Task: structure prediction
Amino acid sequence: MIRACKFLLRPTTGQEASLRAMLADHCSLYNGAIQERRDAWRHASKTSIKYGDQSAQLKEIRAFDPERQGRWSFSSQQATLRRLDKAFQAFFQRIKAGQAPGFPRFKGVGHFDTVTFPKDGDGCRWDSTGHDTRTRVRLQGVGHVRVHQHRLVRGRVKTISIKREGRRWYVVLACDEVPAEPLPATGSIVGIDLGVTHFLTTSKGVHVENPRFLQARGEELAAAQQHLATFPQRTRRRTKKHRAAARKVAKLHAKIRRQRLDHHHKQALALVREHDVIGHEKLNTAGMTNTPVPKPDPEQPGSFLPNGAAAKAGLNRSILDAGWGLFLGILAQKAESAARRVIPVNARNTSRECPACGHTAKENRTTQAKFECVQCGQAANADHVGALNVLTRAGLVLCAEAWPPTQEARRFSGGWSHVPTPPGRWSCSGAA
Result:
């Protein structure tokens, strides 16, 4: 398995100045490479410059400017040029696909926050003596920087990245050949339904409340953003007060991001420890948070009818604050490390299908929280119903993979007994 470890750096004052200089010089190299590509395309009969052409010039650039470019790792500068080359490759792919091109832009010093070292031992060295405070990472041109290593690093360290987040510095280790750590089998399968009122609801009826970290700090964040917006355009990025206001907004967003990440890790770990198989809906978060299409008014050209954009904006904010996509990614990684199984199922009508009789109708979902089947009268919590349907669909996947279905697969299928027909022709005879 491939895993990444992220640790906090504790540089000295001099090391922090060197780290900032390293980011600034790599940013200058990145912007210079963009300018060269643009000039070659405009003034040299549309000549395209590739990564190999620019990488071959690094030796001359380092010799010409030894104070700024010559003191940093050669391989890290190559990684910066590869990063630019990937941006141009994606740009041309978007053009071929008919999408918005999005030409690679110049990076400001405050927006270039990562330097990558492609190989451990080439311009950098991870010096770990175990799980203690003596861990160091050696960086060419910076020195041995102390690392707050809060957990063991498993596997083989392949690449090392230095990242700046606000006033904090991190080292990110990409590790290969990470061994799995299987957990003891529990014999349990669960379906989960993600929502906004409750962060998730399990098929066993357990509700996990949505912490709403963004809403909890909404007033403080709004006040900081309003203060930042009071600075005139001509004084922005030039005064000490403006930089302090911008750092305060960034600090609040970073705090919310860390709280959300910590919450997702804890909930995913709890699910992986308690269940062997976890079923969840395939969610298209990007499509669910799209802005409503404007509705032109046929009677008044140039005017538009109400389309519920304000209400949709609030719903979109709540969905993005919950961070479903981030949570499902963390859940999949933890399940793989623990030798658990995660099964994504079709999310269509999971909250409208009756788990007792199978009747599907829009009228079954009377309110956001209440489900009542119009055919059999089954009443339950709507999120719990969705989790039960996810559980059933995950069980069908297990039964289809283990044909003929074993007793364990029948039990995992949520209590449904299946007529022994060939795979692909399932028929349910009812709930057990």
